[in-house]
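Sequence dictates fold. Below is an illustrative record:

_____
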Amino acid sequence: MDSITSEPRPLCDLCGSKGELVQSGIADPDGNLAGTWGFQRCSNPECGVYWLDPAPPPHELWKAYATYHTHTRKSGHRLAKSTLSLAHRLIRLGLLPLWVANGLKREADYLRFMTLSREPAGSLLDVGCGGGRFLNRMKKRGWQVEGTDFDEQATRKVTSRYGIRTHVGDLSQCALPADSFDVITMSQTIEHLYDPQATLRECLRILKPGGLLVMTTPNALSLGATEFGAFWRGWEAPRHLHLFTVESLQKLTRRAGFDVAEASTYSAGAAVVYRVSRGNQQSSPFSWLNELKLLIWSYDKELQEYHTQAIQPHTGQNVLIRARKPALQNG
């Protein structure tokens, strides 16, 4: 295992309030970094953000991404992986009628396009664009797209593969023109930021009046977080520096100057989180048969979670925020 330096963060860095330790003993879910981390929840009722404590300082954080699962391919038995991949597809196909009937398929489609399916095509900026598949998807639908990411290698691949303009670094460092985009998306991005408040304010500046901001992020009050404790994949320490609930992210977005149009949670894709979280609990690798059983179990959990939200709102695996820049801005 590699080592990474972490420093205490006793106070909320968004409002300066004290916090309450809500989870400790969180290990790197990829098993590459030594040590454990915890999350505190801000005691200020007007904030309520969760923050990583201790946390790596900015100059150390690159170590957390050197072998990150989105940047590297893990080795393994190809036949077993291919078989599980086929099983994965067959299970999804078998469940498709049920997903269509109960609305989960509609929710998945809604999130596949970051809620933009019915929005008129315009200019779109994806903050934290990663491999660029979402941007390419929207480009094919007639959108004028650009992306930003901290990973220079990733942005180069997006540009060379899809012909999409990209920018490297923190959103503020990109110095994009004011009032220049109709939509900004941040899919599973805000939780990785040292200063999410500053990023939201920069989004407000860059968006055109009336422009739309769409964000998704892990839900710290999800059923999965409650069930798995320190093994919940959504903690993702030490890469996730802040986590949110529907209420806390809605408040932060409003403080940045946005009008929040939708604040909710969703379950589409939760099967992956359930499967990985259960795997994190195991001290030894699963057999192939148990992997298959785990796959079936995780899809069942996703369906259960989807239905549970009808009686326990805001308990889905991820938070969704849709917010607009006011049509008229002063100054």
Summary: The chain is about 35% helix and 20% strand.
